From TrEMBL:
<feature type="compositionally biased region" description="Polar residues">
    <location>
        <begin position="20"/>
        <end position="29"/>
    </location>
</feature>
<protein>
    <submittedName>
        <fullName>Uncharacterized protein</fullName>
    </submittedName>
</protein>
<feature type="region of interest" description="Disordered">
    <location>
        <begin position="1"/>
        <end position="29"/>
    </location>
</feature>
C-alpha cells in the first residue's frame, strides 16, 4: 500500500511532524547517554531480580525444612504411640 502524498511531495506523517529527522552522527552522544541509562537500569533490574531469587530460595528452603520437621515429629509421635500401645497390649495379655 502506498502512502498518501500531499501536493508538495511530503507524506502524511511529514505534514504532522515537519522537523527533519536528525542523522545518527549528530545523535551519537544522545545514543551513548541513552545506552548508559538503559544499562544502569538493567543493572538495577538484575540486582533486584537476584535479591528476589535469593529470598525465594531461602523461603523455599525454610518451608521444606518446616515440612520435614513436621513429618519427623509426626513419625516420632506415631512410633511412641505404637510402642506404648504394644506395651499396653502386652500388659493386658499377661494379666
Amino acid at each position: 500500500m502506498e502512502g498518501v502524498i500531499s501536493y508538495n511531495g511530503s507524506s502524511w506523517a511529514d505534514q504532522w511532524d515537519p522537523t527533519a529527522p536528525t542523522s545518527a552522527t549528530n545523535n551519537s552522544g544522545a545514543t551513548a547517554k541513552y545506552k548508559q541509562k538503559v544499562g544502569g537500569g538493567l543493572e538495577k533490574t538484575k540486582f533486584v531480580a537476584l535479591t528476589a531469587m535469593k529470598k525465594v530460595k531461602q523461603g523455599t528452603s525454610s518451608g521444606i525444612q518446616w515440612i520435614k520437621d513436621k513429618l519427623e515429629s509426626r513419625t516420632r509421635s506415631i512410633r511412641q504411640l505404637r510402642k506404648w500401645s504394644d506395651s499396653r497390649h502386652d500388659e493386658l495379655r499377661s494379666s
